[in-house]
Fold:
Amino acid sequence: MGGRVEGKIACITGATGGIGRAAALTLAREGALVVATDLAADRGAELVAEIEAAGGKARFLAHDVTDEDAWAGVIADIDREHGRLDVLVNNAGIGLSAPVTEMSLSDWRRQTAVNLDGTFLGVKHALPLMRRGGGGSIVNVSSIAGLKASPNVSGYCATKAAVRYFTKSVALECAALKDGVRVNSLHPGIVATAIWDSLIGTRPDGSNERPRGATLAAFTERAVPFGRPGLPEEVAAGVLWLASDESSYVSGTELVIDGARSIA
Ligand SMILES: NC(=O)c1ccc[n+]([C@@H]2O[C@H](COP(=O)([O-])OP(=O)(O)OC[C@H]3O[C@@H](n4cnc5c(N)ncnc54)[C@H](O)[C@@H]3O)[C@@H](O)[C@H]2O)c1
Structure:
């Protein structure tokens, strides 16, 4: 076990997915008590067992980030059990791919509800508890899609660009209050997780028939200067730095972890 976030209480949404799971394992390994939340309770129990087997501390709460009452319940639970919240990682997200003319309004709204509304609700409900404890770190997981546009993912790009500027605005609100809360956005590139099941290989008509593994490897070889997808652990390393006191003078910034894709 390390100790870079020793004793901190850290809440991570979407914590049973690829990046969220890696972030939960990493923060727990470095000494945080992780409150992992996600939709699927069975995978949550597995995650908690894995963290505990490695000597870490974790709890799982079933939680839909689009539900404001659920957010109030999660924060009340953390307050009751731990009395404070030091780190919030707004990581839950979905990626829906379609040419804009094929995108249904219900899919547009569902993606916005998870990626943007979920982040807003997390910040809104976590801030009072963080402030009561004298400060904290919020990490909003955006994407390089919030920095650089791509075709057929206009809705996804819109939500991730919005998270980027929402983050900066809240960072300034917190700084003005001198509340000790830092708020940053994290921009992963192409990372090998299940989210690519719905994003990769989409044809102009919106269909998606190519096998995921082979397609992602071929796609990244061509599209990423490093020639490979990122690993969830490589993104979790950035979450750890932003969550830790090592980044104590950093707020409103954009941490890009993308094998140089966004500058190519
Ligand atoms: N994988 C990539 O290439 C990549 C790149 C840039 C950004 N991101 C972002 O990273 C974050 C994590 O994505 P991932 O790649 O690990 O994908 P993933 O599909 O493996 O994990 C996403 C998790 O979010 C959860 N989730 C979905 N809707 C939810 C809801 N309404 N409430 C609570 N949880 C919900 C899912 O159950 C899942 O566990 C997302 O915000 C994604 O947009 C991923």
The two ends are 37 Å apart (CA to CA).
